[in-house]
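The pair is quoted verbatim as follows:
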Amino acid sequence: MTPPGPVPIRQAATVLLLRDGTVGLEVYLLRRTRGMPFAGGMSAYPGGGVDDRDGDTDLAWVGPPPADWAAAFGCDERLARELVCAAVRETFEEAGVLLAGPADGSGVVPDVSGDDWEAQRQALLARDLSLAELLAGRGLALRADLLRPFAHWITPPPERRRYDTKFFAALLPAGQEARDVSGEADEAVWTTPAAALQEHAGGSRPMLPPTIHTLGQLAPFPDAAAALAGSPPAPLEPISPTFEQTPDGNYAVLPDGTRIRMVVPLPA
């Protein structure tokens, strides 16, 4: 029997959507349905794989150019464009939040919850509509200036599904509300990073190492403005953990020696 070849690595983007709550910084988490082939039952941020049309150069763009994002994530400019577009598209698809506004950069579209918006969100999900087509049809531009590079994780070889994921941080735009619109989630919550980590430690909120670690990075910040201002400097070093079984539990071990206790089985 021919041994299996290397698992292909898919490019992906995910977004730490932030807001200021009554007790401080809050982040938006989705719990993926248990039937999902990857990370079923896990709490995670909105995000997903890059679509071929995410690199459409006809899309109107406000903010740092693709060259700046390429420097932040250590990739070429086309992939950088695809990743930023995927971050905006996936946030709209999975949370009903659109990081877009007039092409002059004068603001952000205030409300995207109507029936016409929902029809276009569904068309995006079905890949019947591209992000560039949606924005052009409404005279809007992608607001890359509302995003910050936050982390870069690569799924390690033991996994059967591998992703090279760039993490972005963004503030929830004024006038918009994150909504549980993803058919891939059975729960959507705003929570403080500390509360989410406490639930994970108690076993009630399983999460994968990238989510656990980035929540830990967010936890010290008092509010969303501080978190966005405190985004790690570019270029971001990619993190690909190894796994360790010990008598007291299972751990993901990061390149710097940080050990993250896991409440899910290690990869086979």
Q: What stands out?
A: The chain is about 25% helix and 30% strand. The chain has one domain: 9-226. The helical segments are 66-73, 77-95, 115-125, 131-137, 193-201, 209-218, 224-229. Residues 77-95 form the longest helix (19 residues).
